[in-house]
Amino acid sequence: MDSVYWFLDQTHIVVTGITGITFLYTRSAHVAFFIVGGVACNTFAKLSKKIIRQDRPYTAVKDATSGVPVLKTSAEGSSRHPRKVKKTYGMPSTHSTSIAFFMTYIALSLPPFQRSLTNSAIVDMLMLLGTLAWGVAIMWSRIYLGYHTWQQVAVGGAIGFCGGALWRFLWNAVVLPRSLESPLQQIVDQGFAILGC
Questions:
Q1: Are the C-beta atoms of 171 and 30 separated by less than 8 Å?
Q2: SS3 at position 189
Q3: Beta-carbon neighbour count of residue 92 at 10 Å?
Q4: Which whole-number Å values give the CA distances from 94 to 2, 66, 160, 162, in the listed order?
Q5: Which three-class secondary structure state does DSSP give residue 69?
Q6: Coiled-coil stretches, from where to where (predicted)?
Q7: Residue 101 contacts residue 165 (beta carbons within 8 Å)
Q8: Residue 84: φ, ψ to 5°
Q9: Residue 61 forms beta bridges with which residues?
């Protein structure tokens, strides 16, 4: 089970990697729009964290010299991961913000909210449930690993959910009806051309 928690702890690398590979492979304006929304939502959460300034949760950690348990914030070292040091505040959880944004945007891009790409209701439902389960598991791991309280995860998740829903709404209600996808795609294509890709 520790390997599962280790994997969930590394999700920032996994999610960023999958997103980057998807963008490089598709060179899609829609994926670029999605990335910009995710960065904007996460930036909002990081700025909120600096304003709110709420510490991370306290955990019992054995003192290195005396062996006596002492309470420390997870910024000082977690009992489950003593080498992991978190130097930022805890409210809201930016991991939860990011994954809730991704989970919400992707879920709203799948049936029943959008047209099916697979023509299989079972595959569509499995993709939706898999997206939701992965997102919830990642957010729950932030509490289990001692990095955040449930309140910090809930607020981060709420920010990400609202951001993902708003960003998907903007794509459907502004970008597509105003035929802005082609100009956005030209910008993406020009960016890749400048890079020589």
A1: yes
A2: helix
A3: 26
A4: 23, 35, 9, 14
A5: strand
A6: none
A7: no
A8: -80, 115
A9: 70
Please state the φ and ψ torsions of residue 62, each to the nearest 5 degrees: -70, 135
Which of 144, 111, 136, 141 has the alpha carbon at shortest distance from 125? 111
Give the C-alpha separation, 67 to 118, whole Å. Answer: 57
Q: What is the pLDDT of residues 84-99, one digit of tens each?
A: 556 777 788 888 898 9
Q: Which residues have CB under 8 Å from 19's CB, separation 6+?
A: 31, 34, 35, 38, 102
Q: Residue 16: helix, strand or coil by DSSP? A: helix
Helix (H) or strand (E) holding 61: strand 58-62
Contacts for 110 with CB less than 8 Å, ≥ 6 apart: 124, 127, 128, 131
Q: How many CB atoms lie within 10 A of CB 80?
A: 16
Write the pLDDT tens digit of every residue in 24-66.
787 788 888 888 999 999 999 989 888 888 777 765 454 556 5
Q: H helices of the chain, where?
A: 2-9, 11-26, 29-52, 94-108, 121-144, 150-170, 181-194
Specify the amino acid at residue 116.
S
Residues in the chain: 197
CA 146 – CA 81 distance, rounded (Å):
9
Q: Please give the Cα distance from 193 to 197 (Å, whole number).
A: 6
